[in-house]
Design goal:
The complex is a heterodimer of chains A (109) and B (351). Chain A has one domain (19-105). Chain A has six helices and one strand; from the N terminus they run βαααααα. Chain A has helices spanning 21-30, 42-46, 57-65, 69-75, 84-88, 95-105; one strand at 14-15. In chain A, helix 3 (57-65) runs antiparallel to helix 4. By secondary structure, chain B is an alpha/beta fold. Chain B has two domains: 4-106 and 266-349, FAD/NAD(P)-binding domain (3-Layer(bba) Sandwich), CATH 3.50.50; 112-262, FAD/NAD(P)-binding domain (3-Layer(bba) Sandwich), CATH 3.50.50. Helix content of chain B is 28%, strand content 28%. Chain B contains eight helices and 22 strands. Chain B has a five-stranded parallel sheet, covered by helices on one side. In chain B, strands 11-18-12-13-14 form a five-stranded parallel sheet. In chain B, helix 4 runs parallel beside helix 5 (206-215). Chain B is elongated and about 70 Å long. The chains are: A mainly alpha (109), B alpha/beta (351). The A-B interface holds A 12-17, 21, 28, 32, 35-39, 59, 62-63, 65-66, 91 and B 191, 193, 210-211, 214-215, 218, 220, 223, 243, 245-246, 248-253. The complex binds iron/sulfur cluster (SF4) (3 copies). One iron/sulfur cluster (SF4) binds at residues 46-49, 55, 57, 79-85, 95-96 of chain A.
Chain lengths: 109, 351
Protein backbone atom coordinates (compact mmCIF):
# COMPACT_ATOMS: atom_id res chain seq x y z
CA UNK A 1 0.00 0.00 0.00
CA UNK A 2 1.14 3.53 -0.68
CA UNK A 3 2.33 5.34 2.41
CA UNK A 4 0.79 8.80 2.34
CA UNK A 5 2.56 9.84 5.50
CA UNK A 6 -0.63 10.02 7.57
CA UNK A 7 -3.30 7.64 8.82
CA UNK A 8 -6.99 7.91 9.64
CA UNK A 9 -7.84 7.69 13.31
CA UNK A 10 -10.87 5.56 14.10
CA UNK A 11 -14.06 7.44 15.02
CA UNK A 12 -14.51 7.95 18.72
CA UNK A 13 -18.23 8.54 18.27
CA UNK A 14 -20.64 6.28 20.11
CA UNK A 15 -23.18 4.95 17.65
CA UNK A 16 -26.13 3.62 19.60
CA UNK A 17 -27.62 2.15 16.43
CA UNK A 18 -24.85 -0.46 16.62
CA UNK A 19 -25.71 -1.42 20.18
CA UNK A 20 -25.56 -5.18 20.83
CA UNK A 21 -28.76 -5.45 22.88
CA UNK A 22 -28.76 -9.25 23.06
CA UNK A 23 -25.57 -9.54 25.09
CA UNK A 24 -26.53 -6.61 27.28
CA UNK A 25 -29.93 -8.18 27.98
CA UNK A 26 -28.18 -11.43 28.95
CA UNK A 27 -26.22 -9.46 31.52
CA UNK A 28 -29.33 -7.67 32.79
CA UNK A 29 -31.17 -10.98 33.16
CA UNK A 30 -28.38 -12.09 35.47
CA UNK A 31 -27.86 -8.70 37.14
CA UNK A 32 -31.13 -6.76 37.03
CA UNK A 33 -29.80 -4.30 39.61
CA UNK A 34 -27.28 -2.99 37.08
CA UNK A 35 -30.14 -0.95 35.61
CA UNK A 36 -30.32 1.03 38.84
CA UNK A 37 -26.87 2.60 38.53
CA UNK A 38 -27.13 6.40 38.56
CA UNK A 39 -23.45 6.91 37.75
CA UNK A 40 -22.58 8.66 40.99
CA UNK A 41 -19.00 7.40 40.96
CA UNK A 42 -18.86 6.28 44.59
CA UNK A 43 -17.64 2.84 43.53
CA UNK A 44 -14.76 4.26 41.51
CA UNK A 45 -13.80 6.71 44.22
CA UNK A 46 -13.25 4.04 46.89
CA UNK A 47 -11.71 1.45 44.61
CA UNK A 48 -8.30 0.36 45.88
CA UNK A 49 -7.21 -0.68 42.42
CA UNK A 50 -8.14 2.62 40.82
CA UNK A 51 -5.18 4.34 42.41
CA UNK A 52 -2.78 2.28 40.35
CA UNK A 53 -4.83 1.01 37.40
CA UNK A 54 -7.64 2.22 35.19
CA UNK A 55 -10.32 0.46 37.23
CA UNK A 56 -13.83 1.84 37.52
CA UNK A 57 -17.15 0.08 37.94
CA UNK A 58 -18.98 3.23 36.93
CA UNK A 59 -17.01 3.56 33.70
CA UNK A 60 -17.43 -0.14 32.98
CA UNK A 61 -21.20 0.07 33.38
CA UNK A 62 -21.26 3.21 31.30
CA UNK A 63 -19.27 1.53 28.54
CA UNK A 64 -21.79 -1.33 28.53
CA UNK A 65 -24.68 1.12 28.26
CA UNK A 66 -22.94 2.46 25.18
CA UNK A 67 -22.43 -1.02 23.80
CA UNK A 68 -18.66 -1.14 24.36
CA UNK A 69 -18.08 -4.59 25.93
CA UNK A 70 -14.36 -4.75 25.32
CA UNK A 71 -13.85 -1.41 27.00
CA UNK A 72 -15.89 -2.53 30.02
CA UNK A 73 -13.67 -5.56 30.45
CA UNK A 74 -10.64 -3.30 30.18
CA UNK A 75 -12.02 -1.05 32.94
CA UNK A 76 -12.32 -4.03 35.27
CA UNK A 77 -9.00 -5.72 34.57
CA UNK A 78 -7.33 -4.37 37.68
CA UNK A 79 -10.16 -5.40 40.02
CA UNK A 80 -9.00 -7.22 43.15
CA UNK A 81 -12.52 -8.27 44.18
CA UNK A 82 -12.12 -6.62 47.54
CA UNK A 83 -15.80 -5.60 47.58
CA UNK A 84 -15.30 -2.02 48.79
CA UNK A 85 -17.39 -0.68 45.91
CA UNK A 86 -20.33 -2.86 47.00
CA UNK A 87 -20.18 -1.34 50.45
CA UNK A 88 -20.55 2.23 49.21
CA UNK A 89 -23.02 1.93 46.32
CA UNK A 90 -26.01 4.10 47.30
CA UNK A 91 -28.34 2.15 45.05
CA UNK A 92 -27.46 -1.10 46.82
CA UNK A 93 -26.01 -2.81 43.76
CA UNK A 94 -23.87 -5.85 44.48
CA UNK A 95 -21.11 -4.50 42.29
CA UNK A 96 -18.63 -7.23 43.14
CA UNK A 97 -21.06 -9.85 41.88
CA UNK A 98 -21.83 -7.64 38.91
CA UNK A 99 -18.14 -7.42 37.97
CA UNK A 100 -17.90 -11.21 37.90
CA UNK A 101 -20.98 -11.44 35.67
CA UNK A 102 -19.65 -8.77 33.30
CA UNK A 103 -16.35 -10.58 32.95
CA UNK A 104 -18.18 -13.85 32.34
CA UNK A 105 -20.60 -12.57 29.73
CA UNK A 106 -18.20 -10.30 27.94
CA UNK A 107 -15.72 -13.08 27.57
CA UNK A 108 -12.88 -12.44 29.98
CA UNK A 109 -13.57 -15.37 32.31
CA UNK B 1 -70.70 45.09 53.03
CA UNK B 2 -68.80 42.24 51.51
CA UNK B 3 -65.52 43.09 49.78
CA UNK B 4 -65.19 42.30 46.09
CA UNK B 5 -62.17 40.21 45.16
CA UNK B 6 -61.30 39.77 41.49
CA UNK B 7 -59.32 36.69 40.46
CA UNK B 8 -57.67 36.81 37.04
CA UNK B 9 -57.11 33.33 35.65
CA UNK B 10 -59.19 30.17 36.10
CA UNK B 11 -56.42 27.59 36.27
CA UNK B 12 -55.77 25.53 39.41
CA UNK B 13 -54.30 28.50 41.36
CA UNK B 14 -57.17 30.84 40.49
CA UNK B 15 -59.77 28.18 41.26
CA UNK B 16 -58.24 27.23 44.59
CA UNK B 17 -57.89 30.87 45.71
CA UNK B 18 -61.48 31.58 44.64
CA UNK B 19 -62.80 28.68 46.69
CA UNK B 20 -60.82 29.72 49.76
CA UNK B 21 -61.91 33.38 49.57
CA UNK B 22 -65.50 32.39 48.96
CA UNK B 23 -65.41 30.33 52.16
CA UNK B 24 -63.93 33.29 54.02
CA UNK B 25 -67.06 35.21 53.07
CA UNK B 26 -65.86 37.48 50.30
CA UNK B 27 -67.62 38.25 47.07
CA UNK B 28 -65.43 36.46 44.53
CA UNK B 29 -65.39 37.15 40.80
CA UNK B 30 -63.23 34.88 38.64
CA UNK B 31 -62.44 35.58 35.02
CA UNK B 32 -60.93 33.14 32.54
CA UNK B 33 -59.84 33.70 28.93
CA UNK B 34 -60.69 30.23 27.72
CA UNK B 35 -64.18 28.76 27.63
CA UNK B 36 -63.56 26.27 30.45
CA UNK B 37 -61.89 26.48 33.84
CA UNK B 38 -58.83 24.35 34.61
CA UNK B 39 -56.08 25.97 32.55
CA UNK B 40 -53.18 23.74 31.55
CA UNK B 41 -54.52 20.96 33.78
CA UNK B 42 -57.17 20.32 31.09
CA UNK B 43 -54.39 19.35 28.71
CA UNK B 44 -52.78 16.74 30.96
CA UNK B 45 -53.68 13.06 30.81
CA UNK B 46 -52.02 11.71 33.96
CA UNK B 47 -49.98 13.56 36.56
CA UNK B 48 -46.55 12.93 38.05
CA UNK B 49 -45.38 11.35 40.22
CA UNK B 50 -48.07 8.72 40.85
CA UNK B 51 -49.91 8.81 37.51
CA UNK B 52 -53.22 10.09 38.94
CA UNK B 53 -55.61 11.11 36.11
CA UNK B 54 -55.64 14.91 35.76
CA UNK B 55 -59.44 14.80 35.86
CA UNK B 56 -59.36 13.91 39.58
CA UNK B 57 -57.86 17.13 40.96
CA UNK B 58 -59.86 19.04 38.34
CA UNK B 59 -63.13 17.64 39.62
CA UNK B 60 -62.08 18.32 43.21
CA UNK B 61 -61.34 21.95 42.31
CA UNK B 62 -64.64 22.33 40.42
CA UNK B 63 -66.62 21.05 43.41
CA UNK B 64 -65.51 23.96 45.59
CA UNK B 65 -66.44 26.67 43.11
CA UNK B 66 -70.03 27.03 44.36
CA UNK B 67 -70.97 30.65 44.82
CA UNK B 68 -68.01 32.02 42.87
CA UNK B 69 -69.06 34.25 39.98
CA UNK B 70 -67.20 32.89 36.98
CA UNK B 71 -66.87 34.66 33.66
CA UNK B 72 -65.28 32.46 31.01
CA UNK B 73 -64.21 33.68 27.53
CA UNK B 74 -63.47 36.93 29.30
CA UNK B 75 -60.38 39.11 29.45
CA UNK B 76 -59.32 42.34 31.12
CA UNK B 77 -59.97 45.37 28.99
CA UNK B 78 -58.55 47.88 31.42
CA UNK B 79 -57.50 47.99 35.03
CA UNK B 80 -56.79 51.07 37.17
CA UNK B 81 -55.67 51.42 40.73
CA UNK B 82 -57.91 53.91 42.59
CA UNK B 83 -57.38 55.12 46.15
CA UNK B 84 -58.36 51.90 47.93
CA UNK B 85 -59.56 49.68 45.13
CA UNK B 86 -59.27 48.74 41.47
CA UNK B 87 -61.57 49.78 38.67
CA UNK B 88 -61.64 46.91 36.18
CA UNK B 89 -63.46 46.78 32.85
CA UNK B 90 -63.96 43.29 31.45
CA UNK B 91 -64.19 42.35 27.77
CA UNK B 92 -67.85 41.39 28.28
CA UNK B 93 -68.64 45.01 29.12
CA UNK B 94 -69.01 44.50 32.87
CA UNK B 95 -67.21 46.88 35.23
CA UNK B 96 -65.95 45.58 38.56
CA UNK B 97 -64.87 47.63 41.53
CA UNK B 98 -62.50 45.25 43.29
CA UNK B 99 -61.00 45.81 46.75
CA UNK B 100 -58.28 43.27 46.02
CA UNK B 101 -57.08 41.64 42.80
CA UNK B 102 -55.33 38.30 42.50
CA UNK B 103 -53.38 37.56 39.35
CA UNK B 104 -53.25 33.84 38.67
CA UNK B 105 -52.47 34.03 34.97
CA UNK B 106 -50.22 30.97 34.94
CA UNK B 107 -47.57 30.44 32.25
CA UNK B 108 -47.16 30.02 28.49
CA UNK B 109 -45.49 26.96 27.08
CA UNK B 110 -42.22 27.75 25.28
CA UNK B 111 -42.71 27.71 21.51
CA UNK B 112 -40.51 24.74 20.59
CA UNK B 113 -40.27 25.75 16.92
CA UNK B 114 -37.96 28.56 18.06
CA UNK B 115 -35.25 25.93 18.71
CA UNK B 116 -34.92 25.35 14.99
CA UNK B 117 -32.06 22.86 15.35
CA UNK B 118 -34.58 20.38 16.83
CA UNK B 119 -36.89 20.62 13.84
CA UNK B 120 -40.26 21.01 15.54
CA UNK B 121 -42.80 21.79 12.84
CA UNK B 122 -40.23 20.85 10.20
CA UNK B 123 -39.56 17.13 10.69
CA UNK B 124 -42.41 14.62 10.75
CA UNK B 125 -41.64 12.90 14.04
CA UNK B 126 -40.66 15.71 16.38
CA UNK B 127 -43.35 16.55 18.95
CA UNK B 128 -43.55 18.37 22.30
CA UNK B 129 -44.44 17.25 25.81
CA UNK B 130 -47.85 18.92 25.34
CA UNK B 131 -48.45 17.04 22.04
CA UNK B 132 -47.64 13.79 23.82
CA UNK B 133 -50.09 14.52 26.66
CA UNK B 134 -52.72 15.25 24.01
CA UNK B 135 -51.93 11.90 22.38
CA UNK B 136 -52.22 10.09 25.73
CA UNK B 137 -55.70 11.63 25.97
CA UNK B 138 -56.86 11.06 22.40
CA UNK B 139 -54.55 8.34 21.04
CA UNK B 140 -54.61 10.12 17.71
CA UNK B 141 -51.61 11.86 16.18
CA UNK B 142 -50.11 10.96 12.80
CA UNK B 143 -46.62 11.72 14.07
CA UNK B 144 -46.78 8.87 16.60
CA UNK B 145 -46.74 5.74 14.51
CA UNK B 146 -45.76 2.72 16.58
CA UNK B 147 -42.25 4.05 17.36
CA UNK B 148 -39.48 1.61 18.24
CA UNK B 149 -36.93 4.20 19.39
CA UNK B 150 -38.07 7.25 21.30
CA UNK B 151 -36.00 10.12 22.69
CA UNK B 152 -36.85 12.88 25.16
CA UNK B 153 -34.95 16.17 25.05
CA UNK B 154 -34.86 17.95 28.41
CA UNK B 155 -34.55 21.74 28.86
CA UNK B 156 -36.05 22.90 25.55
CA UNK B 157 -36.30 26.66 25.92
CA UNK B 158 -35.10 26.42 29.53
CA UNK B 159 -31.60 26.95 30.88
CA UNK B 160 -30.89 28.50 27.53
CA UNK B 161 -30.00 32.18 27.44
CA UNK B 162 -30.14 32.26 23.65
CA UNK B 163 -33.75 31.10 23.83
CA UNK B 164 -34.35 33.94 26.28
CA UNK B 165 -34.65 31.83 29.40
CA UNK B 166 -31.80 31.25 31.79
CA UNK B 167 -33.96 29.55 34.41
CA UNK B 168 -35.04 25.98 34.97
CA UNK B 169 -38.70 25.17 34.36
CA UNK B 170 -38.68 22.78 37.26
CA UNK B 171 -41.39 20.31 36.22
CA UNK B 172 -40.09 19.05 32.86
CA UNK B 173 -37.51 16.59 34.25
CA UNK B 174 -40.09 14.65 36.18
CA UNK B 175 -42.59 15.05 33.32
CA UNK B 176 -40.08 13.55 30.88
CA UNK B 177 -39.48 10.60 33.20
CA UNK B 178 -43.23 10.12 33.66
CA UNK B 179 -43.87 10.28 29.92
CA UNK B 180 -40.92 7.97 29.21
CA UNK B 181 -42.54 5.33 31.44
CA UNK B 182 -45.93 5.87 29.77
CA UNK B 183 -44.39 5.51 26.30
CA UNK B 184 -42.92 2.19 27.45
CA UNK B 185 -46.37 1.15 28.63
CA UNK B 186 -47.88 2.10 25.27
CA UNK B 187 -45.05 0.56 23.23
CA UNK B 188 -43.41 -2.16 25.36
CA UNK B 189 -40.85 -3.00 22.67
CA UNK B 190 -39.62 0.57 22.32
CA UNK B 191 -36.20 1.72 23.50
CA UNK B 192 -36.49 5.00 25.35
CA UNK B 193 -33.74 7.57 25.87
CA UNK B 194 -33.70 10.78 27.94
CA UNK B 195 -31.11 13.43 27.06
CA UNK B 196 -30.61 15.53 30.19
CA UNK B 197 -28.08 17.98 31.64
CA UNK B 198 -29.09 17.54 35.28
CA UNK B 199 -31.97 15.45 36.52
CA UNK B 200 -33.95 17.62 38.89
CA UNK B 201 -35.95 15.11 40.90
CA UNK B 202 -36.60 17.46 43.80
CA UNK B 203 -40.15 16.56 44.80
CA UNK B 204 -41.57 13.92 47.06
CA UNK B 205 -41.60 10.51 45.28
CA UNK B 206 -39.87 11.91 42.19
CA UNK B 207 -36.68 9.92 42.82
CA UNK B 208 -38.83 6.79 43.10
CA UNK B 209 -40.18 7.51 39.64
CA UNK B 210 -36.64 7.91 38.28
CA UNK B 211 -35.61 4.59 39.82
CA UNK B 212 -38.72 2.94 38.38
CA UNK B 213 -37.93 4.35 34.93
CA UNK B 214 -34.47 2.77 35.12
CA UNK B 215 -35.37 -0.51 36.79
CA UNK B 216 -38.82 -1.39 35.44
CA UNK B 217 -38.83 0.41 32.10
CA UNK B 218 -35.14 0.29 31.18
CA UNK B 219 -35.07 3.96 30.17
CA UNK B 220 -31.54 5.03 29.21
CA UNK B 221 -30.46 8.39 30.58
CA UNK B 222 -27.80 10.13 28.52
CA UNK B 223 -26.14 13.11 30.11
CA UNK B 224 -25.76 15.74 27.41
CA UNK B 225 -27.83 18.31 25.61
CA UNK B 226 -29.03 17.35 22.14
CA UNK B 227 -27.08 19.55 19.77
CA UNK B 228 -28.77 18.85 16.47
CA UNK B 229 -31.40 16.73 14.81
CA UNK B 230 -31.73 15.88 11.15
CA UNK B 231 -34.25 13.85 9.21
CA UNK B 232 -33.30 10.75 7.24
CA UNK B 233 -34.93 9.84 3.93
CA UNK B 234 -37.20 7.32 5.64
CA UNK B 235 -38.38 10.12 8.00
CA UNK B 236 -36.51 8.71 10.98
CA UNK B 237 -34.39 11.17 12.93
CA UNK B 238 -30.64 11.33 13.41
CA UNK B 239 -29.96 12.80 16.81
CA UNK B 240 -26.55 14.02 17.98
CA UNK B 241 -25.31 14.94 21.44
CA UNK B 242 -22.28 14.52 23.60
CA UNK B 243 -22.32 11.73 26.12
CA UNK B 244 -20.64 13.95 28.69
CA UNK B 245 -20.05 11.08 31.13
CA UNK B 246 -17.63 9.51 28.67
CA UNK B 247 -16.70 12.76 26.89
CA UNK B 248 -17.57 11.27 23.54
CA UNK B 249 -19.97 12.35 20.83
CA UNK B 250 -22.98 10.08 20.57
CA UNK B 251 -25.47 9.58 17.77
CA UNK B 252 -28.64 7.58 17.45
CA UNK B 253 -31.48 7.07 15.00
CA UNK B 254 -34.93 7.61 16.52
CA UNK B 255 -38.54 7.22 15.35
CA UNK B 256 -39.95 9.85 17.69
CA UNK B 257 -38.40 12.79 19.49
CA UNK B 258 -40.25 14.54 22.31
CA UNK B 259 -39.15 18.08 23.18
CA UNK B 260 -39.68 19.08 26.82
CA UNK B 261 -40.79 22.65 26.23
CA UNK B 262 -40.40 24.79 29.32
CA UNK B 263 -42.50 27.40 31.10
CA UNK B 264 -42.38 31.03 30.02
CA UNK B 265 -44.23 33.96 31.52
CA UNK B 266 -47.82 34.44 30.39
CA UNK B 267 -48.18 37.08 27.66
CA UNK B 268 -51.73 37.77 28.81
CA UNK B 269 -50.36 38.38 32.30
CA UNK B 270 -47.74 40.70 30.87
CA UNK B 271 -50.45 42.85 29.26
CA UNK B 272 -52.08 43.31 32.67
CA UNK B 273 -48.73 44.16 34.26
CA UNK B 274 -48.22 46.79 31.55
CA UNK B 275 -51.63 48.36 32.27
CA UNK B 276 -50.56 48.71 35.91
CA UNK B 277 -47.05 49.86 35.10
CA UNK B 278 -45.51 46.88 36.88
CA UNK B 279 -42.07 45.80 35.70
CA UNK B 280 -41.42 42.04 35.62
CA UNK B 281 -38.37 40.39 37.15
CA UNK B 282 -35.45 39.39 34.89
CA UNK B 283 -37.00 36.01 34.15
CA UNK B 284 -40.13 37.67 32.72
CA UNK B 285 -42.44 36.51 35.51
CA UNK B 286 -44.23 38.90 37.91
CA UNK B 287 -42.13 40.67 40.51
CA UNK B 288 -43.06 39.94 44.13
CA UNK B 289 -42.62 42.18 47.14
CA UNK B 290 -40.10 39.81 48.71
CA UNK B 291 -38.89 36.56 47.18
CA UNK B 292 -38.40 34.90 50.55
CA UNK B 293 -41.10 36.27 52.80
CA UNK B 294 -43.80 37.98 50.70
CA UNK B 295 -44.20 35.76 47.65
CA UNK B 296 -47.89 36.35 47.05
CA UNK B 297 -47.76 40.16 47.24
CA UNK B 298 -47.17 42.19 44.09
CA UNK B 299 -45.36 45.50 44.28
CA UNK B 300 -48.63 47.41 44.56
CA UNK B 301 -51.06 47.54 47.48
CA UNK B 302 -54.11 45.31 47.03
CA UNK B 303 -52.56 43.31 44.21
CA UNK B 304 -51.68 39.66 44.83
CA UNK B 305 -50.13 36.81 42.86
CA UNK B 306 -50.53 33.04 42.88
CA UNK B 307 -49.27 30.02 40.96
CA UNK B 308 -46.99 30.15 37.92
CA UNK B 309 -47.49 33.92 37.55
CA UNK B 310 -44.40 34.15 39.76
CA UNK B 311 -42.38 31.38 38.11
CA UNK B 312 -42.58 27.64 37.35
CA UNK B 313 -44.49 25.60 39.92
CA UNK B 314 -45.89 22.10 40.28
CA UNK B 315 -49.62 21.60 40.79
CA UNK B 316 -49.43 21.12 44.59
CA UNK B 317 -47.11 24.14 44.82
CA UNK B 318 -49.58 26.27 42.89
CA UNK B 319 -52.44 25.16 45.13
CA UNK B 320 -50.46 25.90 48.31
CA UNK B 321 -49.47 29.26 46.83
CA UNK B 322 -53.13 30.02 46.12
CA UNK B 323 -54.10 29.25 49.73
CA UNK B 324 -51.33 31.54 50.99
CA UNK B 325 -52.52 34.26 48.64
CA UNK B 326 -56.09 33.86 49.94
CA UNK B 327 -54.84 34.27 53.52
CA UNK B 328 -52.75 37.31 52.51
CA UNK B 329 -55.80 38.88 50.83
CA UNK B 330 -57.93 38.20 53.91
CA UNK B 331 -55.35 39.91 56.15
CA UNK B 332 -55.05 42.85 53.79
CA UNK B 333 -58.81 43.45 53.54
CA UNK B 334 -59.25 43.13 57.31
CA UNK B 335 -56.45 45.66 57.88
CA UNK B 336 -57.57 48.18 55.26
CA UNK B 337 -61.36 48.14 55.56
CA UNK B 338 -62.69 48.92 59.07
CA UNK B 339 -66.15 47.54 58.28
CA UNK B 340 -64.65 44.18 57.30
CA UNK B 341 -62.83 44.12 60.63
CA UNK B 342 -66.02 44.99 62.50
CA UNK B 343 -68.01 42.34 60.65
CA UNK B 344 -65.41 39.72 61.54
CA UNK B 345 -65.51 40.65 65.23
CA UNK B 346 -69.30 40.44 65.19
CA UNK B 347 -69.26 37.00 63.57
CA UNK B 348 -66.72 35.85 66.16
CA UNK B 349 -68.81 37.13 69.11
CA UNK B 350 -72.01 35.57 67.89
CA UNK B 351 -70.18 32.36 67.10
S1 LIG C 1 -14.13 -4.99 44.09
FE1 LIG C 1 -12.81 -4.37 42.40
S2 LIG C 1 -13.80 -2.55 41.54
FE2 LIG C 1 -14.68 -2.88 43.59
S3 LIG C 1 -13.44 -1.62 44.95
FE3 LIG C 1 -12.55 -3.66 44.96
S4 LIG C 1 -10.99 -3.57 43.39
FE4 LIG C 1 -12.31 -1.82 43.04
S1 LIG D 1 -21.67 3.39 43.33
FE1 LIG D 1 -23.40 2.27 42.48
S2 LIG D 1 -24.77 3.83 41.62
FE2 LIG D 1 -22.78 4.80 41.99
S3 LIG D 1 -21.73 4.60 40.02
FE3 LIG D 1 -21.11 2.86 41.25
S4 LIG D 1 -22.55 1.22 40.69
FE4 LIG D 1 -23.42 3.16 39.98
S1 LIG E 1 -36.75 20.62 35.17
FE1 LIG E 1 -35.18 19.48 34.11
S2 LIG E 1 -35.78 19.56 31.95
FE2 LIG E 1 -36.89 21.19 33.00
S3 LIG E 1 -35.61 22.97 32.73
FE3 LIG E 1 -35.10 22.08 34.73
S4 LIG E 1 -33.36 20.74 34.32
FE4 LIG E 1 -34.33 21.22 32.34
Amino acid sequence: MVDFGFSLSPSSRIDLDEFDRKTFDRLLALEPDAKKCMECGSCSAVCTASRYTETSVRRALHALRNGCGAQAVEELKGCQFCGKCTMVCPRGINTRHLILSILKIYGAL
Amino acid sequence: MKNNVLIIGGGPAGMEASAQLQRLGYNVILIERESTLGGHLNRWDRLFPEGVPASEPLEALMKNMNGVKCFTDTEIQSINRLDKSFNVILSNGITVLADAVLIACGFDLFDASRKEEYGYGIYDHVITNADLEAWFQSKSDDRIDNPKRVGFVHCVGSRDEKAGCRGCSKVCCVTAVKEACEIKEAFPDAQVYCFYMDLRMFGRHYEDLYLKAQKDYGVRFIRGRVSEVSENQDRSLLVKAEDTLSSKPVQITLDLLVLMAGMRHSEAGRRIADMLNLAPEDDGFFAVRNNLTANQQARMPGLFLAGAATGPKTLPESLADARSAAAAIDHYLTDIFPQTRKLKKLVKKNG
